[in-house]
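Table 4 source record.
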Amino acid sequence: MELEIFIERENRREKVNFSGRTIGELLKELKINPETVITVRNKEVLTEQEALQDQDKIELLSVISGG
């Protein structure tokens, strides 16, 4: 399936051919630690177990913490 992904920390948008099914598999393939991003599709926050569909537009937003 083909996905359009926006990676906020790199301010980069790209199309990715992805053979997996879930957000967790996508993050693993992109070598992104799931604890460092919030995954969003259609303004809805997704969990690592959420299934992806062909042509999904995914945003990977950076998690910022402070203290």
